[in-house]
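Request:
Um, any thoughts?
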Amino acid sequence: QVQLVESGGGLVQTGGSLRLSCELSGRTFDNYAMAWFRQAPGKEREFVAIVNWSGSSAAYADSAKGRFTISRDNAKNGVYLQMNSLKPEDSAVYYCAYGMGRRVAVTSDYDYWGQGTQVTVSS
């Protein structure tokens, strides 16, 4: 019923930038937020950023503050993550999520997930 597809990942050098995109298709739900999570090998999936439907409110993990920016494109039911000043520790598979997101960092509070896009930051 809902499909999320991420794109924009790739290989960049330390200090570089990437812009991730996530496009939603299918049914939408009132007041659902969209968020980005990431998961590195051997680690739990961790929260990165969240934005509400209107784009008027956003929150970030401490690791993302000052470097990453999340935004919405409601015309395309999309969400973007602009990542600047990338570090090797940012390397992970990045997933977009769709749901209420009342507990922003809790994966079970989101109903839908994309397939992920790989981000690799070289030293």
Q: What stands out?
A: The first strand starts at residue 2 and ends at 7. The mean pLDDT is 95.
